[in-house]
Amino acid sequence: MKKLLLIAISFFVINTTFAQTAQNISFTDLDGVTHDLYSYLDSGYTVILDFSYQYCGPCHDWSVNVGHNLWESYGPEGDNSLRMFFFDVSLSILESDANVAAYTQDWGIECPVINLDGYNTIPEYPEDGYPTIYVICPNRSIYQDGGYGVYSMLEVSTRLSACQGADIDGDVAILSASSADFLCDSRINYAPEIHVCQTDVFGGMGLIQGGMDQDFNVEVIINQSVLDTFLVEYINLGDSVDFIVINGDTVETSNDPPFEIETVLPEFEVNLGDEITLVLHYPGDNFNGNDSITVSIPLELNTPSSIDTMFSIEASSEHLSYKIYNPDGELILYNSESSTFNLSPGSCYSIEFINPHLSDVTFKDLSEIEMLSFEAGEVQMQMPRFYFNVGNSTSIFTHHQTKVTETYYLNLLGKKVSNSLSELPKGIYIEIKHYNTGNFEQRKLFKIE
Question: Which residues contact 110 (CB under 8 A, 6 or more apart)?
Answer without folding.
Answer: 68, 71, 75
